[in-house]
Amino acid sequence: MTERSAAHVMSFEVDGKRRQGFSIGSSEQFGLPRLRLAGAGGAVAPAPLADVGVYLGWFGGATRLVQAASALGPPLGRLAGVRRVLETQARRIQRSRAQPSAVQAIRSDVVAVARDAGGRKLAAAHLTGGDPYSFTAPILAWAAGTAAAQGVRPAGALGPVEAFGLDSLESACAGAGFPREPRR
Questions:
Q1: Which of 9, 78, 88, 177 has a CA that sits 20 to 30 A from residue 171's CA?
Q2: CA 154 centroid distance within chain
Q3: Helices and strands, number each (H, E), in the chain
Q4: Does the pTM exceed 0.70?
């Protein structure tokens, strides 16, 4: 299903505090239908998995504002004056992030929750890191290098877990600055 970023907001406990995150797209969801049906040895194994929500806790108390902006942005962006203001702000944000910084100004909590058709939580994963834009280059470099050196099985369009395996991907994410928080 296609939906806009920040269509959903969910609260999570992080470091003993309630924090909010908004829904974001992730490439893993594209591989879920195959993962749901593939059992050991490729045999069909029905699984109760119905949904995986991925949430980014980047804006703290402003998360609901991000959700509203994601809904209002496209229609308002069609207005010339609003579009100019949005483009100016986007350029300003891009310039402010143009140079890497030794100071970690951003904390990102990324939470994924798998649910069954009844909405019951089956599993959750929580990764914590810094600026997600600083994560992109190292994880893409790792994926390209690993694929070139070892290949991926099976071939074709795959989600990251399918292509590299969960343990390898989790280790690579940690190496790129987004380790998984310990399970509680």
A1: 9
A2: 23
A3: 6, 5
A4: no
Q: Which helix (H) or strand (E) segment is 36 a member of?
A: helix 28-37
Query: From CA 25, how far away is CA 126, in angstroms rounded?
Result: 16
108 token code pair: 């990102």
pLDDT tens, residue by residue, 134-174:
898 999 999 999 999 998 877 777 878 888 888 999 999 99
Q: Which residues of the chain have pLDDT under 70?
A: 1, 27-48, 93-104, 184
Q: Is the separation of the CB atoms in 128 and 167 below 8 Å?
A: no
3-state secondary structure of 122: strand
What strand order describes the sheet that includes 108-116?
9-14, 17-23, 49-57, 108-116, 121-129
Cβ proximity of 55 and 25 under 8 Å: no
